[in-house]
Amino acid sequence: MKKLNKLVVATMAAILFASNLASGVQAYSIDNTYKLADNEGSAYKTSNNYIILHDVGTESKAWENASYLKRAWLSTQSYVQYYVGDGGKVFAGGAEGYQAWGAGAVANAGSPVQIELAHTYDKVQFAKDYAAYVNLARNSAIKYGIPLTLDGNGRGIKTHLWVTNNIWGNHTDPYDYLARFGVTKQKLAHDLQTGLP
């Protein structure tokens, strides 16, 4: 009987551990310091077709991008919902579920969340940034009922490169930046499926 009890307890512990992993790890918290006010940004709601992944394209910090676009969203006609970087930090920008101005009118209208990844040359910092980026994208997709598939047909998580190739534009992010640290499209697709600790 004691062996059976131990087996039951061990099995239950394994199931609880696995279910915690499967539910996705949130390796980030959201800083609202630079979030757009209710009267800032687009007033148009989105459909729930895409989560769009970007990188900022220049060597800069996440807080710098979030701060700049908080001040200049109207004059630059650009902002997204989240800016990730600076050691795994997440800064809020525009409101989720409302159009951001990050990937052209059609993509913006279909994406409740767009995410920018800041640049670094530090491998340790990148690992933290990447984990937050992946988990935020994954959790956002789950929240909005969007498939966890990367750059496929139909609804799913899309890169700005996918938007360029399938809708409009000339951006190729984030693959070039991710490649700096050995992250391939296949690895990104896998990590979005499983989440990162």
Key traits:
Lysozyme-like, alpha/beta, six-stranded mixed beta sheet, 7 helices, globular, single chain, 197 residues
Structure explained in plain terms:
This protein is of the alpha/beta class. The protein has a single domain, classed as Peptidoglycan recognition protein-like (Lysozyme-like). The chain has a six-stranded mixed sheet with strand order 1-4-3-5-2-6. Helix 4 crosses helix 7. 37% of the residues are buried. The N terminus is likely disordered.
- Along the chain, the helix and strand elements come as HEEHEEHEHEHHH
Secondary structural class: alpha/beta
Q: Structurally, how many domains make up the residues?
A: 1
Distance between the termini: 37 Å
What topology, given as strand order, has the largest sheet?
Answer: 1-4-3-5-2-6
Itemize the secondary structure elements and their pairings.
Layout: H1 2-22, E1 30-31, E2 50-55, H2 62-76, E3 82-85, E4 89-92, H3 105-109, E5 113-117, H4 123-143, E6 156-159, H5 160-166, H6 175-179, H7 185-194
Parallel strand pairs: 1-4, 2-5, 2-6, 3-5
Antiparallel strand pairs: 3-4
Helix pairs in contact: 4-7
